[in-house]
Each structure stands twice: as structure tokens, then as C-alpha cells.
Write a structure and sequence with these properties.
- The chain is of the alpha+beta class.
- About 25% of the residues lie in helices and about 20% in strands.
- The chain has two domains: about 220 residues, Glycosidases (TIM Barrel, Alpha-Beta Barrel); about 120 residues, Immunoglobulin-like, CATH 2.60.40.
- A six-stranded antiparallel β-sheet has the order 5-6-7-12-9-10.
- A hairpin with a 5-residue loop joins strand 9 and strand 10.
- It is globular.
- The termini are far apart.
């Protein structure tokens, strides 16, 4: 529901709705109103979700979250900066409930929404171009940058809001007019529906990445990592080389994410919490950890989601070479994970016959 800050009878804010500072302060009467609403919802339909577009004082949101309600968490600006390759404002830690001091993972965070500009539009129009080999405004590289942000966003605890077609890299501005121009007055205009994006192999790969990350959130081995209250989470989001570790209370399931948000190669130090073999969930392969600090060199836009338990879920749709726009891997399989009717496409990058479209 939203916006819900207006559910207050505090006369000190005056009749005007423009007194945002006052309206956003903690209001005990508003908390009491929403607790009554929530109690009634649970009485009439036990287990009902109550999701509030609140954006009020953190102390008030904590009280409502502790009572069982979920609240929106806007972190669009910082994710946009990270995706575009601009580092000074790329720390997106605000999307974590632990950073806000919440005990419960009831923060419904999002990178884009009905009120915020699309990440892909920002990448293509305003992305970092300082490295011609990794130009964020190139379509394929821009899509890989969305993968990079999603690798961190969907591996964090708590519910997430995915705006429509974000999983395919929707790149039409929120302010696009029907005639194709961009104007702030056109925010509510109809936007093109692009089902054809599913036929673009690089966009299909992004879709597979989103699907795989969400499957991980529901897997019996790892689902508790995303919903339990007693989660151990550490992160380093301030620089180009970002990392995050999320572990269950028993340490039976641990995931680690590393990524380079710069447009040039970066070397960072990362310590896996347990020595031994770690499994690259999205790309396949393994990494041998010592349990102590290890240097890792990542290409621009490169990222990895490592698990301490082996789940076979490597995404094999084409990967764009980070340093050569337009280059691809030799082959792709779709749908992925492989099905009996999966198609193997082989791309021969030279004049001659291409053996594509074989079905196994």
C-alpha cells in the first residue's frame, strides 16, 4: 500500500501535505493505526502480507517491521551509479536491512520501480565511456552491467521488488512520451511492450541470470539465508571491488559475491570464510580458498557468486567479452538449465557453413 505516511492525525504538521519533514517524523498515532490494520488483516486472512510504501523515520519503520509488516526500500540512485561505472556514489549498502539496524529482513528493496528511471536506460544514455574497450553505453556491456548489479541485489536477504521487464534489460525511459520523445510530463504515458527482447540472446542471458538467482533463493539448502532473522552478513561496497558474504546461523550454507564495478581491471583482497573448494554458481568451475586474504583480479564488469555447496546451475547463454564489444562465446544452450528439447546454437565467426540449431 502506498503512500501511507498520511495515516496520521498529528495536527502539528498542518493541513498542507508539503510539510514532508514533519510528516516523515515518528508518529505514534500512525504506528497505532497501522498496527490495528495489520491485526485486522491477520484476523480475517492469517499470513497476509502487508507491504507499505512508507519512507518515514527509520525508528518508525523498525517498529512496523518488528510487528510483521514489510516496507519499501529505495536504493535506485546508488545502484544506477554502480551500474553506470561511476564509483564515488556507488555504495548501495542502503538496500540491506542490517545496515538500517533492522532485526528482521522485512525491507522490500529495489533498484528500479514505477517511480524511478530504468537502469538500462541510464547505462545506455549516461554510462561511463572513459574506457573504449568497456564502454557502458554499448548494449552488450550495458546488459552485463545489469547482471553485475543483480548478482549482489538478489543474493542479499529479504524480499526484492523486480520492476517489469527489468530481467530483460528494459531500456525505455520512464519519461518516454508516446511519440518517442523524453519529457517529465510523460511519466504516466504508455510504454512499449517488448516481448521480442526474449529473442535477443544477450537479453535472454540476463533473463537466465535473474531466474537462476531467484531459484537459489528458493533452494532448500539456501532459502533460510534469505529469510531468517539471525543472518551473518558482511560486505565491502565502498570501492570498485565490491564483495559480500551471507551465511546461515549454522554456517551450513554460505554464499560469497565479488564484483568489479569499475571500467578497468581491478585487484581486490577477499577472504572466504571457510578454506576449501567454492563453487561458481552462475559460471561453473571452482575456486580454492585458503581461508585467509587472497588477491583476486577481475575484469571490468566481472562478477562471481560462490557457494560452499555445489549446485549445478551454470548459465551458458553467450557472454560478451568485457574488452571487445560484440564478441561472444562459441556456443549457447537454451533454455537453461538444459531440457530434453534444449537447442544448441553454434556461432562460427568466419565465412562458411554454420552448424546451428541442433536439438538434443
Amino acid at each position: 500500500m502506498g503512500p501511507v505516511k498520511g495515516f496520521t492525525q498529528n495536527a502539528q504538521c498542518g493541513a498542507s501535505t508539503s510539510n514532508e519533514a514533519c510528516i516523515s517524523e515518528y508518529h505514534a498515532d500512525r504506528v497505532a493505526i497501522w498496527k490495528r490494520y495489520y491485526d485486522t488483516m491477520q484476523l480475517k486472512s492469517p499470513g497476509t502480507y502487508c507491504i507499505l510504501e512508507h519512507f518515514a523515520a527509520n525508528s518508525e519503520e523498525i517498529e512496523l517491521a518488528n510487528y510483521g509488516m514489510l516496507l519499501w526500500g529505495n536504493n535506485t540512485f546508488n545502484f544506477q551509479e554502480a551500474s553506470m561505472g561511476f564509483l564515488p556514489n556507488s555504495n548501495f549498502e542502503g538496500f540491506l536491512h542490517t545496515v538500517r539496524g533492522w532485526s528482521n529482513p522485512h525491507l522490500v528493496s529495489y533498484m528500479e520501480s514505477h517511480d524511478e528511471e530504468r537502469l538500462m536506460y541510464k547505462n545506455l544514455q549516461f554510462g561511463n565511456t572513459s574506457n573504449s574497450a568497456h564502454n557502458v553505453r554499448d548494449l552488450n556491456i550495458a546488459l552485463r552491467r545489469i547482471e553485475l548489479t543483480a548478482g549482489f541485489f538478489y543474493t542479499a536477504p529479504g524480499p526484492k521488488m523486480l520492476w517489469q521487464f527489468g530481467e530483460l534489460g528494459y531500456d525505455f525511459s520512464i519519461n518516454r512520451c508516446v511519440d518517442g520523445t523524453i519529457n517529465n510530463n510523460c511519466r504516466l504515458d504508455n510504454k512499449p511492450i517488448r516481448w521480442d527482447y526474449q529473442n535477443v540472446i544477450q537479453r535472454k542471458r540476463l533473463y537466465d541470470i535473474y531466474a537462476s538467482l531467484n531459484k537459489l533463493r528458493f533452494h532448500p539448502w539456501y532459502k533460510d539465508v534469505f529469510i531468517a532473522n539471525n543472518i551473518n552478513l558482511t560486505r565491502s561496497f565502498s570501492g570498485a571491488f565490491k564483495s559480500m558474504t551471507v551465511r546461515s546461523a549454522t554456517d551450513s550454507s554460505i554464499l560469497c559475491v565479488v564484483g568489479n564495478f569499475d571500467v578497468t581491471p581491478q585487484t581486490g583482497s577477499f577472504t572466504f570464510p571457510v578454506a576449501g573448494t567454492w563453487y561458481d554458481y552462475l559460471n561453473g568451475g571452482t575456486f580454492t580458498a585458503t581461508g585467509t586474504a587472497q588477491n583476486m583480479t577481475l575484469q571490468p564488469g566481472e562478477y562471481h557468486v560462490y557457494l560452499n555447496r555445489n549446485l549445478i546451475n551454470a548459465v551458458t547463454t553467450p557472454v560478451t567479452n568485457n574488452n571487445t564489444p560484440g564478441s561472444q562465446l562459441l556456443a549457447s544452450v537454451y533454455p537453461n538449465p538444459a531440457q530434453p528439447n534444449s537447442i544448441l546454437d553454434i556461432d562460427v565467426p568466419q565465412t562458411g557453413k554454420s552448424a546451428g540449431g541442433f536439438t538434443e
